[in-house]
Amino acid sequence: MRRKVLVLNSDYRALTVCSVYKAFLLVFLDKAEVVDQAQNLFLRSVSQSFPMPSVIRLFHYVNMPYKSVMLNRHNVFKRDGQRCVYCSSKEDLTIDHVMPRSRGGKTKWTNLVTACKKCNARKGDFTPEEANMHLPYAPFKPSFVVFLRDFSGIGDDTWKPYLQTMSEVGEEY
Asked: Which of the two ends of the chain, N or C, has the fewest CB atoms closer than 10 A to its terminal CB?
């Protein structure tokens, strides 16, 4: 079973994603409640049938310090849509430092983009401007909620109301 379940803290803020099995276990042990369920999907035992959870909420608040998205090539590729930012190719993808490391560029979210090997070699030890290669957007570090909502590819429509950033719902930090 590859489906995933969105786990909300007791204040309805997105906390993490887990397997259907773990979500069902949390609900069955009265540690969480089903907030939303998958349409027409059920978990069946020999004698019972249970709605398959899509979103659950924990009963007790879990204090989570700032949760961030891990910087790795897989997540950079997700952020960039599995395409080269220079030519939109999906073949032979690699990571490019916008400001080359040899010129002081750091390995961080705001300096890394997905590039195909051909574009990466063409850009070489130059900045995109110097190589006359258009960068369609400035690289950015996605927040955890934005990453889940826009780049993870594992959510479903029932998750959307719970994956709004604070600025979208009018709250202040």
From this structure: C
Is residue 18 situated within a structural domain?
yes
In a domain, 133, yes or no: no
- Do residues 62 and 80 share a domain? no
pLDDT of residue 170: 36
Chain centre to alpha carbon of residue 167:
18
Q: Domain count for the chain, please give it.
A: 2
Which residues of the chain form beta strands (DSSP E)? 4-8, 14-19, 32-44, 49-58, 93-97, 112-116
Same domain, 96 and 119: yes
Pick from 62-71, 111-120, 131-140: least confident: 62-71
Euclidean distance between CA atoms 141 and 156, whole angstroms: 23
Q: Which residues pair with 135 in a beta bridge?
A: none
Residue 13 belongs to domain spanning: 4-66+143-169
Half-sphere exposure of 62 (CA within 13 A, CB side): 16
